[in-house]
Amino acid sequence: MYKQEPIFLEPALQERIWGGTKLADVFGYQLPSEQTGEAWVISAHPNGPSKIRNGELAGQTLLDAWQNHRDLFGEHDNEDYPLLVKILDARTDLSVQVHPADDYAQEVENEPYGKTECWYVIDAEPGAEIVFGHHAQTKEQLEQMIDQGEWDQLLQRIPVKKGDFVYVPSGAIHAIGAGIVILETQQSSDITYRVYDYDRKDDQGNERELHLDSAKAVSTVPHVTNETRKSAVTNGALTEQQLVQSEYFTVYHWQLAGQIERKAPDSFLQVSIIEGNGEIILDGQSYQLKKGDHFVLPVHIGNYTLKGQLEAIVSHV
After folding, report:
1. Calpha distance 118→248 (Å, rounded)
2. Distance CA 257, CA 62 (A)
3. DSSP of 152-170, one letter per residue?
4. Around 129, how many Cα atoms within 13 Å sit in the side-chain half-sphere?
5. pLDDT tens digits, one per residue of 52-95
6. Is residue 128 helix, strand or coil?
7. Does the pLDDT at position 302 exceed 70?
8. Are 191 and 111 contacting, i.e. CB atoms less than 8 angstroms apart?
9. Which long-range contacts (CB under 8 A, 24 or more apart) does 62-69 make?
10. Within a 13 Å sphere around the CA of 130, how many CA atoms are in the beta-carbon half?
């Protein structure tokens, strides 16, 4: 039986045409280049599994743990690990894109999950914006505006600031704008359909591939915005705010100032420390926590104690 302790993870870093160096500047990660756009911080996805850095499973990946030690994660119908947490550094604008729902992903892409996601804005430069949604009222109008390249008329732009939260269901046209660092909690999927890429060219002078037929097929028309965030609840040293509860994940923002004892979760918990430091005490053993740490808390661990001054984004299925 594997020892019940937090599973701390090393991020899998991904270079992107729009990436920068903030993942090093803000979180101290060792970057492969100055165009590093994504840290897959809690990932069992084959395209970038996170490596375990502590305990008996050190050196293995979260994907290995899911496949060989399923008892750590509780009862799940899913064959594949269901969630993926990333931190993204958008030095320049990401492409405008859309993701499919589960049924389309399974039927067309032969993948287990579509992609519903959500964003917590860790940082945003003044004037930063996201693309979220569009102004088309019918499928025909959407297709016509895409075909004619009427991007300014089609796309809905929204200013964002640090601490904002956006729920992005499958089918929603979206893009993260320049100057934004976000923590993204999503289904464990890597399916993206590019709608528009600002006519950018890569190092070889080629424009990146667009996926217009697929994008038109899966986009929600008209666009729907869901209000999600609930009011915060303070219990002793912990202020907890539920950011979203969907069929795929529930996400919280935790603000800890002191010490609190918590009950073991019914499902595994994913925890990302985005500010401050502290410790988690489990079975008499203390594990230090600092900004940029990410871990999975297995099921059946009994009560645990959190201490310190920190902020975290926490999620479960």
Report:
1. 11
2. 30
3. HHHEEEEE--TT-EEEE-T
4. 10
5. 999 999 999 999 999 999 989 988 878 899 999 999 999 999 99
6. coil
7. yes
8. yes
9. 62/7, 62/9, 62/296, 65/7, 69/2
10. 25
* Alpha-carbon span 248 to 81, nearest angstrom: 12
Output the pLDDT for position 41.
98
The residues, any chain, with a CB within 8 Å of residue 281's CB and separated by 6 or more, are 287, 304, 305, 306, 307
Per the CB < 8 A criterion, the answer to whether 115 and 186 are in contact is yes
Residues 89 and 167: their CA atoms lie apart, in Å, by 18
DSSP 108: I
Among 70, 91, 194, 208, the one annotated catalytic:
194
pLDDT of residue 236: 95
Lowest mean pLDDT among 143-157, 222-236, 241-255, 284-298: 222-236
Q: Are 121 and 182 in contact (CB under 8 A)?
A: yes
Which pTM was predicted? 0.96
* Nearest to 137, CA basis, from 217, 221, 219: 221
**Rounded (10°) CA dihedral 40, 50, 186, 155:** 20
Q: Which of 10, 11, 12, 13 is nearest to 34 (CA)?
A: 13
pLDDT at 143 over 70: yes
Nearest alpha-carbon partner for 172 in 234, 114, 99: 99
Distance CA 126, CA 20 (A): 17
Residues 89 and 23: beta-carbon distance below 8 Å: yes
CA dist 25 and 225 (Å) reads 33
> Are the beta carbons of 11 and 285 closer than 8 angstroms?
no
Is 194 catalytic? The answer is yes
